[in-house]
């Protein structure tokens, strides 16, 4: 059964993790993938997510997929208890997940039931397509990305940061433009989406 916890801000919603896991995350090892943040100017939310996991007693296994060798990447994604992908630029993240081969490894692990935690870009990339997010994230950060097809781990598009600054205006524009095209779930920074098999719950 696929299990995904999709958030806009993990530091603001990490307290939902025990309920999502149906148990304490203490001593769980997290494959911590901050790749989406590489094109960004600040990594504050990455550090906040790292601290949130640490405060819950998790162990961090840093995995930068843009530079990791294939064996290190495979070993981390197979042995670690949880997979976490940070926020940042969604287009760059998808480019690097494909280029490195991490996309296929993640699909395999999630298909086998390993919990996936995605924050912002890490949540958006799980859907069928990420093209709708170009008003928020510049595609220029991913010059080698030839398709906006996402990982397909869920069958809806996740719009993060709804009505949350500094994205309040752009999220409303995206919702107005794309909200009726295909299934879309929009969440604020204080909300999260839990997916268990075919069941979706807003937390």
TrEMBL record:
Keyword Ubl conjugation included in the entry's annotation: no
Alphabetical list of Gene3D superfamilies matching this protein: 3.40.50.880
Keywords on record: Hydrolase, Protease, Serine protease
Transmembrane segments: none
InterPro entries referenced in this protein's UniProt entry, alphabetically: Class_I_gatase-like, Peptidase_S51
Protease recorded as keyword: yes
Family note: Belongs to the peptidase S51 family.
UniProt name for this protein: Type 1 glutamine amidotransferase-like domain-containing protein
Organism per entry: Bifidobacterium asteroides
